[in-house]
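User: Thanks for the earlier help. One more: HNH nuclease domain-containing protein. Can you show the sequence and predicted structure together?

Assistant: Of course, both are below.
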Amino acid sequence: MPLQLCANKPDCSNLVERGYCQQCAAKGCGRDMRPTAAQRGYDGKWQRASRAFLFGKMCVGFPKGRHGEVLVPAAHTDHIIPHRGDKKLFWDRSNWQPLCATCHSVKTAEEDGGFGRPYRGG
């Protein structure tokens, strides 16, 4: 296999077969450093509440009307306003909306600063 730059570029110029060099891997590069989902509140209680909320609901679309007249089952309970750890906002059902996986990913990428994009929300 040809060698390539460490995945921690431009901070590291070591050559590796793939991924991170030993030094960068030892520093934790490439690992998600956030608390676990359960530590962020997405525990069993959330899973039960989310399932109950989604039962029989269709995706509202993101942006609104994305699916037109097509009914797409919701798969994710989305926080309309990102809760950023605020438990009151996290559990406020008026801040929840049903989204399909595609719409949830689009919203996360565009509004919540997900997938490495800058945060633009409120």
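User: Great, one quick takeaway?

Assistant: The first strand starts at residue 4 and ends at 5.
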